[in-house]
Write a structure and sequence with these properties.
Elements lengths: L16 H13 L3 H21 L3 H23 L11 E2 L3 E2 L11 E8 L5 E8 L4 H5 L4 H5 L4 E6 L2 E8 L4 E8 L3 E8 L5 H7 L4 H6 L4
């Protein structure tokens, strides 16, 4: 079972001295917060080089791991606007990183945002960039696979092909879109009477940002 790991945002940890200095400098110079975080990372890398020269290797490795988590945090933040706001009458939770600890060093961005309506209805929206599962998911778009599943159909979603599946007996549904060869977008719904709410939400995802965001 995969463990959800919230991104190590500034709200979730005490800012270090380097970060406070960088933020103060950014405010003085009118630099955006991402620039301040980049300065913080640069300071931390300088400190890591010092640790390596001093042969304090365990501490250097742990510091590198923390820097990698911060970089993943920035990558996730760059894709945050791709998540659409909640539909009318629904609420949206903050996006979470689903990267496991051993994926900190990978190029993958694996994030989820959940939406809830009054009652049992719930939608989980998954964005999986550099996904190891995109190629497998694309196989479900094959006409033979579609013919074998009467609950599935293809729907146009923002210029892309979306695979829609809905079971009216259970109220469960799913929409999948494969962007390029390695980005998987998947919405899963529970307690929904129609797949249309999934389709409408999928059409509000910023696919262009997903494909072109800096640092993806």
């Amino acid at each position: 079972m995969r463990t959800r790991i919230p991104p190590p945002s500034l709200a979730g940890r005490r800012p270090g001295r380097a970060l406070l200095v960088a933020l103060a400098l950014a405010a003085a110079l009118g630099l955006p917060a991402p620039a301040a975080r980049a300065q913080e990372i640069d300071l931390q890398l300088q400190e890591i080089r010092t640790l390596v020269r001093e042969k304090r290797y365990p501490l250097a490795l742990e510091s590198l791991r923390l820097v990698a988590r911060q970089i993943q945090d920035q990558r996730l933040e760059s894709l945050g606007p791709a998540f659409p706001p909640a539909p009318p009458g629904w609420t949206a939770e903050p996006a979470l990183s689903l990267l496991e600890e051993d994926e900190t060093w990978s190029t993958r961005i694996h994030a989820q945002r959940s939406y809830a309506a009054p009652g049992p209805a719930r939608i989980d929206l998954l964005l999986d960039v550099h996904s190891p599962f995109a190629a497998t998911a694309a196989l479900a778009f094959n006409p033979l696979a579609l013919a074998a599943d009467p609950l599935s159909s293809i729907v146009a979603i923002a210029g892309e092909r979306g695979l829609v599946r809905h079971n009216p007996d259970t109220g469960e549904g799913e929409v999948s879109v494969v962007l390029g060869r390695e980005t998987l977008v998947r919405l899963t719904g529970r307690g929904i009477s129609s797949p249309q709410v999934l389709i409408d939400l999928a059409r509000r995802i910023d696919f262009a940002l997903l494909l072109a965001a800096p640092g993806r």
